[in-house]
Amino acid sequence: MSHFDELDYIRYIDGELTPARTAEVKAHIVECSSCCELVEALERETVLLREALIEADEKVPAKARPSVREELSWALLGVMGMAAFGLYTLWSRILVPWLERVQVVGMDFESLFAVVLFKGALWEGWSTMGKNLMQGVTLIVAALVVISALRWSWRRMKLSTLLVASVAILLLIQPSAEAAVIELDARHYVLEMGQVIDNDLIVVGETIRIEGTVDGDLIATGQSVIVTGQVTGDVFAFCQRVQIDGRVDGSVRTGSQFLDLSGRVGRNVTSGGETIDLRPGAVVDGSMTLGAQRVNLDGRMGRDLIIGAELNELNGTIGGSALIAGRRLTIGPGAEIHGEAKFHGAEEPEVSSDAKLASPLVVEIHEETPDYAKGETYMKAVLKWAAAFVFGLVGVLVIPGPYQKVVNTSARTGLSILIGMVASVVIPFVAFVICLTLVGLPVGLTAIFVLVPALYAAQVFVGSWLGKEILGAPSTHGQALSQLALGLAIIHAVQHVPYVGWLATFVIIFWGFGALVLAVTQRPRPAPASA
Amino acid sequence: MSQSRLDRLVEEARAGDRDAWGEVYREVGPMVLRLCRRILPTREDAEDAAAEIFMKAQLKLEHYDSGRPFKPWLYRVAANHCWDVLRARRGRQRVDDGEIDVESRAPDPLERILVRETHEEVRGALARLDDRARLALCLRYFSELSYEEIAEVLGVTSSFVGVLLLRARRRMRRILTEQ
């Protein structure tokens, strides 16, 4: 007698055999006592498995129960309406005027692209760069980051895949690379007077002196950059001190502790740092956009001026309008402003009676502590909340999986705050160091541009987690958004509490950012033997 | 809750009635959570997965064929999600691809187990199985999915599902015998 095997009997018990086969098995069981015993044992095993799996040995925890009643749908509608209003106000009152001002000072998309990403001069071409070790390492790191991001998002086949792929393609498309002159090894680099470089010049060194002529752009990073000669293109400099005594026919864009201009700039100046000086006799034919601790303008500029600085002293000539924001403004007797002038600060400005202003200075004194008697204070608070809510809305709807993962990771409060504190210092430092390698400049700048929204998003993750703790785990997108709205409202309310608010702000930033870093870098957890 | 009431609530939820979906969640949520608890390693994983499964299910509701039972459909959504979670943790779990001897008929260990073991011990042994084996057992004996439905989730043939179940049961017997 031939027997059926155990697999056939399991399929028989599970009802997965064909009718003909089932009949055969049934007939055999009747005749064969050992097979009959086996089948009965397998049936008991099946019952045991079912009972063990189905046994109701645990209650559904409160967090997993839907505890958000549908009455919140009206609240959600109200929240969405406020968010839409906030978005419109943000766009029309803040973003559009800012974009207009940015264009006034000569920063358009093309120049931003050139500065932030990859002007032809920055790259020698991928094949050539591969020959240099440092450049090769940068290439490898960039490629690994892109591949990892693509791989992570590809499995999910979501909108994020398309976004990451688009960014990756943009990064990989090599612009028409014009080989520049690159000096990476000189500690003290000097382009002697009379020497001419008929191309862009990229220099990394401790001290860089340009006494000759660069017939192209100058891109420099180091401790100090001094231009006494001529640069026919733009100057991009990232260092401790930048001194322009000579002539730059293009624009000057710097990130430096000190910027000292006593020469001539043919186009615009954009700078961020500690102290910016436009000396007497210096000329900027275009506009100036400055962000610093202290700004002294004694020279002449042809177009508009935009400053965000703690202390401002104007004693020069401004051919266009002046928009100044900061703590203090002093307009000296030699100052001339040919366009409108506006100051937004904490203290009343000092304006010399001998200063020549085309129109009266418009002053808005900004209260350092909010005036809660004014409706405007609450309006601003609502706007800030609405902007954060819209940010979170994108996360919930476009990338719900990764978003929820970060929110869930926020439950590890202590570790998140610790990681956030460390990462918020380490990452910018590493990015800055990478920028100093110059060939890592795009990577470093990209890291900084990713860091800023990540820090802003911290409040969104913490807000969602807070809402989830109060209202329970969401089972619909509507519930997730309601929790986000509630959590953000609580966070923003706490941030307005005197003396404690600023501390809460820092804690929330570290917390949310740390959770994001943890979620992105999380390794699979070992499986405990759970019953 | 009767099957007909559940079907009606699902239809209402498909039409956009959020109250109905909430009722469905309250009815089947515990079962989905329990399935996740059986499949995923920790309670926290299971709770997170259960929440995400219902969000996915709500989004996919328009594709649900109301002519077929709702619970198996939901279980498939849950199983797919849990399988994705387990696969994402690659390298953590080995997949038992060892040969099996289907001809072997070993009633003795089986009988000893059936006499001795408690549900707690069975669940403990289940937790020690590899991911695919555990998932196959849970989907068959908890969710009552057919071999074909399990095959769809695991990405294998329906005939191989039987092999997986046999391997899983034998592995459990070995674990329980060793204890």
Give the biggest sheet of chain B.
Answer: none
Q: Show unreliable segments of chain A.
A: 57-72, 109-127, 523-531
Q: Into which percentage range does the β-strand content of chain B fall?
A: under 5%
Distance between the termini of chain A: 43 Å
Q: pLDDT average of chain B, as an integer?
A: 80
Largest sheet of chain A, in brief, is:
13 strands, parallel
Number of helices of chain A: 14
- Mean pLDDT figure of chain A: 77
Radius of gyration of chain B: 18 Å
Cα separation of the termini of chain B: 40 Å
What does this structure look like?
The complex is a heterodimer of chains A (531) and B (179). In chain A, helix 9 packs antiparallel against helix 13 (477-495). The longest helix of chain A is centred in the first third of the chain and has 33 residues, at 72-104. In chain A, strands 1, 2, 4, 6, 8, 10, 12, 14, 16, 18, 20, 21 and 23 form a 13-stranded parallel sheet that branches. Chain A is an alpha/beta fold and 531 residues long. Chain A contains 14 helices and 23 strands. Helices cover 48% and strands 22% of the residues of chain A. Chain A is elongated, with a radius of gyration of 32 Å. Mean pLDDT of chain A is 77; it is low at 57-72, 109-127 and 523-531. With 179 residues, chain B is mainly α. Chain B is 73% helix and 0% strand. Chain B has helices spanning 3-14, 18-39, 43-60, 70-88, 107-116, 119-127, 131-141, 147-154, 158-178.
Keyphrases for this structure?
heterodimer; A: 531 residues; alpha/beta; 13-stranded parallel sheet; 10-stranded parallel sheet; 14 helices; elongated; disordered C terminus; B: 179 residues; mainly alpha; 9 helices
Offer a concise description of the structure.
The complex is a heterodimer of chains A (531) and B (179). Chain A has 531 residues and is of the alpha/beta class.
